[in-house]
């Protein structure tokens, strides 16, 4: 017998990531090929008509796993009874902007949505924040939804993680499925630290296979850090299909578990591991089992890496203060 459907909320569902994400979730990319889903799609009043168009297309696609669609501009209805939420709603960065520049518009949305989550969401709901500044939006959500366990609120750095795997795959001519355990530390921003010191390519240390430390310590890092901006420059719009796909990877691994010997990057509440600042949402290497993540412990961190972790941690502390200032000014 098929399991009961799970309710999956996508906010910003009429936007470009939403349009790529809803069909993936409806095909089982987030919760697996045997799990029926009811999609809750939230957007704001000006996007109501476009949202209805998305709902119509989902119905027209006749997905076997799709057990229903709730398309709404009512935040309380959207959060009601959800099992999973992928929070994409917000204002994207445009060319020339840093993610910080979208701060004041977006953190206020996350404060308001925290109230709906607190009131209507299941306490066990798994929440992924995609909208930028993703780590700090997730922190604001956590701080304003105190009854939701902090471990249930995460931010997306899986796209950066996948970008790192993609770069190593292209550089070495190895299929991306054989590249593992790159790490994104810190913020989903240009200060993130994409770390290859524990990565493997076809089972061998990435540094041994790439044989070019100058590239790995230089161009590789900046390419991953700047990939979001490069996509904006190329498309005139921020990444969407890769963001949607990575959001499904994040949820799938969280719910169904990471394969043995593999870790992935997730923005989670920092406990100070590896010298990261506490009480910010910091991207760490994690493994997942039985629906719970744990930070991979005991990795060697050289002096240079420690410095790069500090830079991105400092930015998150700064962003937290800025977000609190923006909210105080409302
Ligand atoms: P978009 O503008 O195409 O769509 C955003 C949607 O959110 C719009 O339909 C808008 O009406 C809606 N929205 C605005 N305020 C809302 C609210 N209060 N409640 C519900 N919906 C609301 O943008 P997009 O390209 O889909 O990007 C969405 C967000 O994701 C942006 O913040 C972008 O920067 C971010 N992003 C993050 C990552 C990541 O890796 N973490 C990757 C790509 C994009
Ligand atoms: C990305 O990394 O593609 C997104 O966060 C969009 C952006 O603003 O860079």
UniProtKB/TrEMBL annotation:
Positions with a binding annotation for NAD(+): 12-18, 43, 106, 130-132
Catalytic-site annotation from UniProt: 188 (proton acceptor)
GO BP term, pick one: tricarboxylic acid cycle
Sites where the protein binds substrate: 93, 99, 132, 163
Lactate/malate dehydrogenase N-terminal domain mapped to chain residues: 7-153
Class of the enzyme per the UniProt entry, highest EC level: oxidoreductase
UniProt keyword annotation of Nucleotidyltransferase present: no
Catalytic activity line of the entry: (S)-malate + NAD(+) = oxaloacetate + NADH + H(+)
Enzyme Commission number(s): 1.1.1.37
SUPFAM superfamilies named in the record: LDH C-terminal domain-like (SSF56327), NAD(P)-binding Rossmann-fold domains (SSF51735)
Lactate/malate dehydrogenase C-terminal domain residues: 157-323
Cross-referenced PROSITE patterns: MDH
Family annotation (Pfam families): Ldh_1_C, Ldh_1_N
Similarity field: Belongs to the LDH/MDH superfamily. MDH type 2 family.
Protein name: Malate dehydrogenase
Protein's organism: Auxenochlorella protothecoides
Lineage: Eukaryota, Viridiplantae, Chlorophyta, core chlorophytes, Trebouxiophyceae
